[in-house]
Amino acid sequence: MRSVLLRSAAAAAIGILLFVSAASANTITVNSTADTTGDTSICTLRDAINSANWSQLTPPPAFGNCADGTHPPATGADTIDFSLGTGQHTIQLDSVLPGIGNDTTISGPGDGLLTVRGELGTEDYPVMPIEDDGTAPFPTVTLEGMTLTHGSKGITVGAAAALTLKDSTVSGNTVTDTQSGTSIVSGAGITDTGGANITINGSTISGNSATATTTGPGTCCSVFTLARGGAIDMPQGGSLNINTSTVSGNTTAAHGNQTAGATGTIFDEGLVVVTRSTISANTVTATVSEAGGAGNSRSSGGGLYVQGGGNELSLNRSTVSGNSATATSGNGGDASATGGGVQVVQIFASTGTNLATGSTIANNAVSGSGSGSAIGSNVDTSLSDPGTFTSENTIIASGSGAANCFTEGDGAFSSSGYNIDSGTSCLGTPATSDHVNTLTGLGALQDNGGVQGNGDPILTRAPALNSAAVDQGTNTGIGDTTDQRGVGFPRIFNMNPANASDGTDIGAFEQSIVQDPVDPGTFTFSSQQWGTASDPQSAFLTNQTGNSLTPGTLARGGTNPGDFQLSGDSCSGMLLVTKQICGVNVLFVPVSAGNGTKNATLSLPTGVAPTTSIALTGDATEYISVAPTPKDFGSTQIGTPTGTTQFTVTNAGPGTSGTFEAATLSGANASEFGITGDTCSGQTLTSAGTCTVSVHFAPTSAGAKTATLNVTGSPGGTSSSALTGTGTAPAPPPPPPTTGPTGQRAAALKKCKKKSKKARNKCKKKANKLPV
């Protein structure tokens, strides 16, 4: 809280006016990966956070080259974004960042593009601290599109603050404490000092570690060695919502001399809602060396530990798998382990209902030693009556080290139906739709499709083909149309054998085989001349079963299967692993007799699901040809028609054509061509039959002329020939002969030229009266 207190003290000291309204809605752009402050040529993350923390002041102080907003400030949260260029970038911190104290969104370019890195081992501090000064309003902070790593903690959240972590990764953070006496650690990934509300969307919390070690002797309750919430630690209430995210590979460990307690990879004393998320491969370990005498160790909640009266856990379409709680002692002391997957403790008067809906809780483990016990390999509860852990459409199976489920209090396990318990300990009085002592053949936790917001795959476990989980569940109460993997992965899909309920699989995973186009699909082809091939249309199958399968042979059926051809078949008899796609191209190639609509079906047998099909339809036209095509009539004078050209129309199809309509001319200069004969009109042609149409060119103006001759069979199609010709103007008539004076008049005029001017005019008058 140091930066918040300094900020308040400084404001008071310099008399700056503080606005009562919320922080200003500014956008502050980080343009450098340096971790400096005060450099006016750049804006660093450190200066950007300082700018956001102080931006409600007027005027806000300047930090580096970061934007200092508008005056007076507008209502809303500041946004810190990044302009660092292309590629991956790392901000290597040199010291702890200032705590975020105002409503702020820090929006990175993506967790694979921006890493904020602490100095773990050199100087230990949280990578991203969020603080408050203990008075309302408390900050609401969103962190998105970044990786936070190599700190003593990834994110620390002050009491009553609110955090949303979106499309990010918090990994590789480690908090350790070694003492000769009491040692207590918590929350290496995300930790809350009490009462915060935290939402995690599309993110990964992985590889974080909280380890407490006590080297000296001491028994409870003079010496404690306690580790809690290696991934997420939320004591003293507050709600935790985890959506489409992964919490995996985190470690919570307590190593004591005579006492050790390790609790929960995720520890929460408030409401916990986990939706479409995976909690896997986390370890909670408590060990005592007993060097100082007999001791005891307790390990609980390998995946989740929810504690408190009235608080509730909700798992919806989520997977809790491969987590473990392990307790050991050095010389046969009391080492107890409970709740390898989930531990719920509600010991107060007001207890809640804990729900697992459409989820998979499997292959979690507990291990105790000495005089201690190991109980609840998958789920352990300690509930006051009438608290319950209720399952619906959920698999609880194959725990290791103890029975799948165990209750330590007066509360109970109960069933809302459609569950699988590989033993008999998890459902109370089973419903008729439940399966007990039943194995599902769950596959390994793997990428079966689906992607988180940060780009990481959603890891799921698929039941074996035709197992008891397939089609035996219900979507009632699940609340969505997809399985854990999200869009593109339906919650209901009927596989073989026929379902007992609505076709939903039990557990978080729904086996499906997706057809494109969606079943029942239709391929509609445009009109196609006999004997010619259309452009292809493609059909695809995607294996979303989480298993390998081999589709059967694609088959054509229906009325006209021979008019449709397949090419590029990568489905028939081919082994498809999970997520693999196969496909086939379909072409319309009419070869059967007759015009009109041709119909067929394409069956797509998957080998494990009901055979799907695609309806095929196309319009066939007989192959009517016109020759010659094209035809150039050459040049002819305007008004002088060319000779007639005879066009031969041939039916190249296998059957009789439709009745021909009268041949027509179309195009820009159709009126300057003429049809002089048509033996096709009103006739039909048998196979290989011919008829003729006669055409001439009769231009009415000069220049190049074009038109098209069209011959149409009804029903049937149109065949055509392109016509060209050039009109020329006629040659101009010869000029009239030249005339002039000859004979007597010419001779007299010649003599006039020899006279004087006055006499010459009188001479011309007389000469012009003479005969020519």
Low-confidence stretches: 1-24
Instruction: Round the Cα radius of gyration to an integer and report it.
Output: 44 Å
**Subunit organisation of the chains:** single chain
Structural class: mainly beta
Strand content: 35-45%
**Spatial strand arrangement across the major sheet:** 2-4-6-9-12-17-22-27-32-37-43-46
Number of helices: 4
Principal-axis shape equals elongated
User: Fraction of residues in helices?
Assistant: under 10%
Mean pLDDT, all residues: 87
Commentary on this structure:
This protein is mostly beta strands and 772 residues long. The chain contains four helices and 67 strands. Strand 57 (596-604) and strand 58 form a beta hairpin. Helix 3 runs antiparallel to helix 4. The chain is elongated and about 165 Å long. Residues 1-24 have low confidence and may be disordered.
In short, what is this structure?
The chain is 6% helix and 41% strand. The chain is built from four helices and 67 strands.
Protein traits:
772 residues; mainly beta; twelve-stranded parallel beta sheet; 67 strands; 6% helix; 41% strand; elongated
Topology overview:
Elements: H1 2-14, E1 17-18, E2 27-30, H2 45-54, E3 57-58, E4 78-82, E5 89-92, E6 104-107, E7 114-117, E8 126-130, E9 140-144, E10 147-149, E11 153-157, E12 162-166, E13 169-171, E14 174-179, E15 183-186, E16 190-192, E17 197-201, E18 204-206, E19 209-214, E20 225-228, E21 232-234, E22 240-243, E23 246-248, E24 251-256, E25 259-263, E26 266-268, E27 272-275, E28 278-280, E29 283-288, E30 296-300, E31 304-307, E32 313-316, E33 319-321, E34 324-329, E35 334-338, E36 342-346, E37 353-357, E38 360-362, E39 365-367, E40 369-370, E41 374-375, E42 379-383, E43 388-392, E44 395-397, E45 405-407, E46 412-415, E47 420-421, E48 435-436, E49 446-451, E50 457-460, E51 512-516, E52 521-529, E53 537-544, E54 555-557, E55 564-567, E56 581-588, E57 596-604, E58 612-621, E59 624-627, E60 631-637, E61 645-651, E62 659-660, E63 664-666, E64 673-678, E65 690-697, E66 703-714, E67 718-728, H3 743-752, H4 757-767
Parallel strand pairs: 2-4, 4-6, 5-7, 6-9, 7-10, 8-11, 9-12, 10-13, 11-16, 12-17, 13-18, 14-19, 15-20, 16-21, 17-22, 18-23, 19-24, 20-25, 21-26, 22-27, 23-28, 24-29, 25-30, 26-31, 27-32, 28-33, 29-34, 30-35, 31-36, 32-37, 33-38, 34-39, 35-41, 36-42, 37-43, 38-44, 42-45, 43-46, 44-47, 47-48, ...
Antiparallel strand pairs: 1-3, 35-40, 49-50, 51-53, 53-56, 54-57, 55-56, 57-58, 59-61, 61-65, 62-66, 63-66, 64-65, 66-67
Helix pairs in contact: 3-4
